Amino acid sequence: MREVVMVATVTYSRYCAHCGTPVSEGPEGGYVCGACFHVVEPVGADEARKARRSERAAMVAEAARLRALQQY
């Protein structure tokens, strides 16, 4: 009987723009270099961050409104 050995090879499709170390991209793009900690954010990260901030601000305003109503 012939034994089949499977070998996993890791191929990097991206290298750090700062130091050239191979990096693995995140699920939505972007990476953090493990050698120099250089950060490249995924496309659309700024818009997502702004949306989360506005949602959080709306939640805080609603919580303040509800607290004000409970005081009376």
Label the overall shape: elongated
Major beta sheet summary: 2 strands, antiparallel
Intertermini distance: 83 Å
| Element pattern in H and E | EEEEH
**Count of individual beta strands:** 4
Tell me the Rg in angstroms.
23 Å
Strand content: 5-15%
Spatial order of strands in the largest sheet: 1-2
Low-confidence stretches: none
Task: Output the structural class.
Answer: alpha+beta
What does this structure look like?
The chain has 72 residues and is of the alpha+beta class. The protein has one helix spanning 45-70, and strands spanning 14-15, 22-23, 31-32, 39-40. The strands form 2 sheets. A two-stranded antiparallel sheet has the order 1-2. It has a two-stranded antiparallel sheet with strand order 3-4. It is elongated. The model has no long low-confidence stretch (mean pLDDT 86).
Task: Produce a short descriptive summary.
The chain has one helix at 45-70, and strands spanning 14-15, 22-23, 31-32, 39-40. The chain is α+β, with helices and mostly antiparallel strands and 72 residues long. The model has no long low-confidence stretch (mean pLDDT 86).
What would the keywords be for this entry?
72 residues; single chain; 1 helix; two-stranded antiparallel sheet; 4 strands; alpha+beta; two-stranded antiparallel ribbon
